[in-house]
Each structure stands twice: as C-alpha cells, then as structure tokens.
Amino acid sequence: MNRTDRLYALVEELRAVAPRPRSARWLAARFEVSVRTVERDISALQQSGTPVYAEPGRTGGYCLDKQHTLPPVNFTPSEAVAMAVGLHGLAGSPFHGAAAAALRKLVAAMHADDVARARQIADRVRLVDGPVTAEMPRLVADALSVRRVLRIRYADKTGAGSVREIEPLAFVGMPTYWYLVAYCRLRRSMRVFRTDRITSVAVTAEVPPPRELRPGDLDVPGDKMSALSLV
C-alpha cells in the first residue's frame, strides 16, 4: 500500500470507529508499518486539516471528529482539472488560499493513476489574461479526457459550416472564449477551434495516434499564458 492510499485508509479506519480512539500500535499492526510511520502519517493528516486528535491515557489513541469530515468521494481526473480551472479564477481573492488547500486535499485522496491522468490533462490547458467566463458543450469539454477522435460541425467567422474529424490536443482559455487546439484531418494540420462555433459533436470509437503539441502551434505569446496547476 502506498502512502496516499494508507492516509486515506487511516481516515476511514478512524471514521468507522469514531468517536472511539485507535492506538498507534493497533494502527501500525493493522497497516503493517511501524508506530513511527503511523505517527508521521497522523501528523501529515493533521497538517492538511483533517480533524484527527490524540487522546492521552492507557486507553487513548487517535480519534476522528466525524462531524467535521465528509464521507469519501471519488473524483475523476476531469473533475480535478475543473476545480483547478476554478481556482485560477480566484487568484487575488481572499478565498484563493482556502480553495488551493481544498484542491490539495482532493488530489491527495485520489488514486495515483487518476492523479497522473489529471496532470496529463492539466498540462494541455493554458489560460490567457485572467479567468474565463465562457461555457462550452459538455462533449467538447470532455474532449481531452475521452481520448477519441471527434467529428464536429464547425462554423467559421463568416458563418460557413464544415464537417471535420479532429484529434483534440489542448484547451486555451481567454476571458471571453475557450479554444480547442486539435489536429484537423480535413486541413491536415493543427487548427484552433472557437468552442462556441462548434455546433455539433460526435465521439467516434477511434483512438487518435500520439501527437506532440509544439509551442509554435499556439499563436499566443508565452508570457501571456498561464499553465494550469493542480498545486
């Protein structure tokens, strides 16, 4: 069991018996680690804000305040990235620190494979000049997480429509619009699609080949863009 899974399991063990305590020795035997490792894990949970308390005495140990914890929730990689985008919009506000702490707890509770996937998606998101208020269709929003070729109907700035198969690679968010960067099979090159001009979306069964997004593929000065972080 890795440390992240053990921290989660410790909380669930203490939640199950709350308000009764579990001793460090009992927990060490339960998770097949040393007492010192349990003490370090408990300290890490306390520092992250988890309400775990030590009760002194012969029958004491560690206990969890059930009233101040939430039941376990499974977050998807896309949900974690969505929270990171929301956090970006709170920059400079009095709530940014608290939101960042909440995101750290969320990531710590996720499965390691989901965290890795969330970081892969986050690496494909760039934000330009502050928070983005525009919305986009759900199937477009899921373009990076589904990892499939999309068939879209797209209207250009003159209103002329076309049907294209695209391989989604990245999102760029600006204050008024979201853009989807993708390899367009119709044009046989990288293209940037304004998401509000995508009038229909169909997810195909085809998995696109690996493609690297180069800095020159985004026509935005590097100093104007912010990378998305899961903190």
Automatic annotation (TrEMBL):
SUPFAM superfamilies: Winged helix' DNA-binding domain (SSF46785). This is Transcriptional regulator. Pfam families: HTH_11 (PF08279), WYL (PF13280). It comes from Paractinoplanes toevensis. Residues 138-203 form the WYL domain. Residues 6-62 form the Helix-turn-helix type domain. InterPro entries: CBASS_pafABC_assoc_protein, HTH_11, WH-like_DNA-bd_sf, WH_DNA-bd_sf, WYL_dom.
